[in-house]
Amino acid sequence: MNPAQTDVPPLLRLDDHTTILPIIHGSGQFAWLTRRFLLEHRFDCVAVSLPESFREAVEQAVLELPKPSIVIQRPAPSFDSTYDAEHDFKGSYDESDADDFDDDLDEIAASYVPIDPCQGVIMAIRAAMGEHIPRAFIDLETNRFQPFSTVMPDPYAVRQVQCEKFAAAVLPSIPRPSDEQTRERMAYMAARLVELSQTYDQTLLVTSVLDWPWIREAHRLLKEGKGADLHSFEHDHVTVPQTYSVDPKTLLFLFGELPFITALYERARRELEEDSNLQIDGVKELLIAAKQSYMKEFKNRARKVTPLLLSKCLKYIRNLSLVHRRMTPDMVTIVTACQQILGDQYALHVAETASRYPLKPSAFTKELDPLENGPITDSSQIPFHEQLTDTAIPDGGASNEEHSPFASDADGASGFESWEYDQDPTVTLGIDQGRLPDGEIVSLVSRLPGPPLTWHTLSLQRRPTKDERERWEYSWNPYSQCSYPPEDERIEMLRNRVCERAQAIMGQDLARTEKFTTSVKDGIDIRDTLRHWYEKQIYVRVIPPSRGKLDACLMLFDSPADPRDYPWRTTWFAEHQWESTLAFYASDFTKEMVGPGIGLGTYGGAMFLYPPVPIPDIWMDRRLNFTETLEERLIAAACMHSRGRQIALMSGLPPGAGWRRLARRFKKQLIHVPLTSFSDQEVQQLRMVHVLNGSEVRSYAAEFIRKA
Asked: Which of 37, 53, 18, 52 is nearest to 120 (CA)?
């Protein structure tokens, strides 16, 4: 035995020449483990559980990583005869029978190999090519592939538990293959390993943990002379696999990990960063990236995504994962937690960010160009022709160099080219289906199946496309608009609460203290009691009922306000007696169409007069032209039309000397209510004002209006 192999656990060794590494497909943690295992031990050959027909397409696609792609093998007809059945048996069957026969052929699913950086088998091929180690594709050729998968433990456990202990722990729960094809595949791979051991001193097989015990059993039977010989197996007639690019919007159906997490693994590989804990740290980076996207879209009307809220969100994600008996969260868990803590809009950005593969084609081209980046340091940068010297010897022992896909062109070029999405045929993926470039929809089954997935539905209002917004904006009728009643009710409720707090503040100004006699009144005044401690008396606080009536309320959400951000300024009158007369300035609702006949604006400031009274439009009233800012015009209009002496003012900061001077000019007093008295979630939701293009739009507006 080679001294370099003495540290390989005995459980993973089939004999002195063969080691098997059981992994879980589609796991970034096991892909990291595979790369580390290959670098820590010396092997002369790396075998993978894929058929030989996939070699050329898969290895060429691996060289183009981090560009994601898919290698699809279409099913071949299961007959070779050439006679004309319609001519020989004319009249014995009708066209419906022929259609049924064709449908049966179409039901055979095409098998595919995902070129996913977080696939352990793909990582083994990629690392072996980088280290110039021969590769062997040892699986049986099957036309109708039957996947073998079951529910597995969370792969994150392998970070704390050695891989051989992990495999031994799951061994009792691994079922024996129930179908004949899977059993033949295990026996054939065992026979191929015996053949490879005669050529190579040390061979590593990277395969699923579900295949590991049965390959081991078949290998033992071969050693005892009881197994099937290599020449007793019969390969199916198969077609040549084709490589396709994948629509970036559907990468979620290709990758085992979230596309964002997969990109983090590629970034760590490129920048030589530590990537052993990316499955957990990647969730934190996902939330931060979603926060930046969220703040970029909503700007000043976005909720404050503070570190405290993010920590609560992470704690919620952890608890949901434990409830589902997982160590690492899935996408549904992450989006659900974000939706509950930070609202629908932030959750939508989390879902979009998680589904995005942020590495751009231009970045790939720059990274893969050895002329611009100096010496080649990444295995994916190795030119095609350099792979010829280390290609695994195929069956029969003859060199396959002349048929290699990595052979150089006649002019000496390696054939290594940069790529773009619009140059390659692209496949759009779905749940176990794919749309080929010619528009045909085919059923797909993975050659590297991971644990079974459960699909859930998330209730998130999608963002309209650019074409939809342009069409809705074009069809807008400028002579018909109204408000959305549920928003009117919520903003009126906020006005009531602001006025109630302002009245309480007015009562605080009239409070006094007196000596305790028979009643504690409104509570003991500790400050005055300590101040007069020498008198041995207790002082109590007396708050008389507030006097006056508040009929005007001001809400300044954004102060100081930039007039360029709030070009829409108008005055709305009440539809019924329970609504206020409303004057406000807001963003242009025609620039953000959220539905057919539905525009979205953002309040910058508003003035409410209740009970409602008819007033001139304050933005056209010449008597208010002495004001300079939007806030001053609202304050002056409230002071002019208010019947009471006090005016409630809700703003982030207390009114300055200029605003108080303006109020005294009309003999009014501003009662300040801090904006922080209300939750940020509530304030940001109430700042959204939806404008409907007619009262008939109210019947379906709820289907398009999104919450903050």
From this structure: 37
- For residues 459 and 448, give the distance between their C-alpha atoms in angstroms, rounded to a whole number: 31
Asked if 215 contacts 190 with a C-beta cutoff of 8 angstroms, the reply is yes
From residue 570, give the alpha-carbon distance in Å to each of 124, 130, 297, 566, 621. 65, 67, 25, 11, 12
Question: How far from chain centre, in Å, is Cα 101?
Answer: 42
Question: Which of the given ranges, 51-65, 160-174, 210-224, 517-531, has the highest pLDDT on average?
Answer: 51-65
Q: No. of H helices and E strands in the chain?
A: 20, 21
| Residue 240 pLDDT > 80 | yes
Instruction: Write out the two tokens for 291.
Output: 């926060």
Q: Which of residues 548 and 500 earns the better pLDDT score?
A: 500
- What is the torsional sign of CA 299, 301, 302, 304? positive
> Where are the extended beta strands (E) located within 106-159?
110-115, 135-139
Q: Quote the CA–CA distance of 160 and 550 in Å, as a whole number.
A: 65
- Could you tell me if 38 and 46 are in contact, meaning their C-beta atoms sit under 8 angstroms apart? yes
Q: How far apart are CA 669 and CA 643, in angstroms?
A: 12
Asked if residues 689 and 557 have their Cβ atoms less than 8 Å apart, the reply is no
CB 570 within 8 A of CB 618: no
DSSP state at residue 289:
H
Encoded tokens for 470 = 């342009």
What is the DSSP code string of 597-648? TEEEEEEEEEEEESS------TTT-GGGTT--SHHHHHHHHHHHH--SSEEE
Question: Could you write out the DSSP letters of every residue in 514-582?
Answer: EE-SS--TT-B-HHHHHHTGGGT--EEEE-PPP-S---EEEEESSSSPPTTT--EEEEE--SSTTS-EE
Query: pLDDT-derived band of residue 704, with 50, 70 and 90 as boundaries?
Result: confident
Within 13 Å, how many C-alpha atoms sit on residue 414's CB side?
Answer: 15
Q: Which two tokens stand for residue 278?
A: 């990316």
Give the residues across from 595 on adjacent strands: 598
Can you tell me the distance from the alpha carbon of 392 to that of 155, in angstroms, rounded to the nearest whole number?
A: 30
Pick the more confident residue, 1 or 665.
665
The amino acid occupying position 139 is: D
User: How far is the C-alpha of 586 from the C-alpha of 606, rounded, in Å?
Assistant: 9
What is the spatial distance between Cα 40 and Cα 4, in angstroms, rounded to a whole number? 9
Contact 549, 644 (CB under 8 A): yes
CB 607 within 8 A of CB 583: yes
Rounded Cα–Cα distance for residues 573 and 575 (Å): 7
CB 550 within 8 A of CB 501: no
The conformation of residue 579, written as its DSSP 8-state character, comes to: S
Q: What is the mean pLDDT of residues 552-565?
A: 90
User: How far is residue 611's CA from residue 600's CA, in Å, rounded to a whole number?
Assistant: 27
- Give me the residue label for tokens 């009117």: 488
pLDDT digits (tens, 9 = 90+) for 564-580: 989 999 998 888 778 88
DSSP string, 331-393: HHHHHHHHHHHH-HHHHHHHHHHHT-----HHHHHHHH-TTTS-S--SGGGS-GGGGGGGPPP
